Amino acid sequence: MGQTDQPYEWRVVLEHPTVWPNRDEPAITAVGDVAEIRPGQNRPPSGVAVLGLRELVIANEPTEFRGCARYGIDLLAVPRERLDSPHWDGRWLTVRVAQDHAEGEGASSITLTLDRRLVEAMCRAFGGSGVRDRGQR
Q1: What global pTM score does this model have?
Q2: Could you tell me where the beta strands, DSSP code E, fall in 14-107?
Q3: C-alpha to C-alpha distance for 30 and 14, rounded to whole angstroms
Q4: Coil, strand or helix: which one is 10?
Q5: Which terminus of the chain is more exposed, N or C, with fewer CB under 10 A?
Q6: Measured at the alpha carbon of residue 121, what is the angle toward residues 119 and 123, in degrees to the nearest 5?
Q7: Alpha-carbon distance 91 to 104, whole Å?
């Protein structure tokens, strides 16, 4: 799906400097199922991810919602120098963040519930630079 094929709200999100800070630098984008949720539908939060030279940014629909009403965007940004390959277990995406070893700190992790199609798009787009499926060998 090209950027012009995406719903307006997601095109605006991708153009925002918080999601893609320097549009002059190359970045890889991955897009999940960003179609509007219709009444009676239910799916995990979807969105977009941008892997730039300096950071990984995941912008997704809020995980806390009632029915099909999802307002706003949840944002996760991790500097590439601290990014330790995200892993997908089929239900949750876990992003490990390496701490400053000079301070003697270990790694921490953030777990996101995301739509499988967003994570699959990230796996395809980012390849060896991004998400790994724990089921893959």
Answers
A1: 0.80
A2: 27-31, 47-52, 55-60, 74-79, 83-88, 92-97
A3: 10
A4: helix
A5: C
A6: 70
A7: 32
